[in-house]
Amino acid sequence: MFKLDGRVALVTGGNGGIGLAMARGLAQAGADIVLTGRDATKGDAARAEIAALGRSAAFIMGDLGTAEGCAALMEGAMQAFGRIDILINNAGIAARRRPEDLSIEEWNGVIATNLTSAFVCSQKAYPFMQRQGGGKIINIGSMLSLFGTSFGAAYGASKGGLVQLTRSLAVAWAADNIQVNAVLPGWIATEMGQAARAQIGGLDERVTTRTPAGRWGDPADLAGVAVFLASAASDYVTGVSIPVDGGFSIAG
To answer: Is 155 labeled as catalytic in the residue annotation?
Structure first.
């Protein structure tokens, strides 16, 4: 039920952090992997890591800031493997500023990378999945889809929009046997999470104190939910958003 043999997964922002951890999990379940990102050195290292697990892997440099860039990624994946069964929209950036200090350029950059690219990549993957008879799209949201912070206006808006986009695509494409779901990571010890911990005074203590699990998440904690949502085990699950946060979002 959880096997992904013969499936091809494309992971945006897959050359590190949560994206690479999910790619690892999918590869261990049998999928071949296409990774995208803007850092070729990290991308080549990530590709080699996936290949060492015994799966075919490719890395494609790409600009998710334009529709043309998103379309080129899909075409590159099709040229490499001839199909796209799983799309993980993971690429994301943050601008940690109070709203009154946030420039329109920073706002537009966050929305374009975190939300618009997920829409366009999904739109460009749709005809391939439709012709194949189905597919899985997994959007990486955030716990800031659920509540706000003083320093996360653009990031929270983009991730909240991603949850609603997930629902809309799920309804639109259910008849094509395409399931669309979201994962909402909590405080995860990625490069972005570590930067937040360094920039925001007292954050580390607040996170560990409030989180029932008593720790920050590890990127590997996201691998299992990715395999579930990418596999036949979730064929009747669509339009949902699953927090993976050690209980942070439900703690009193």
So the answer is: yes
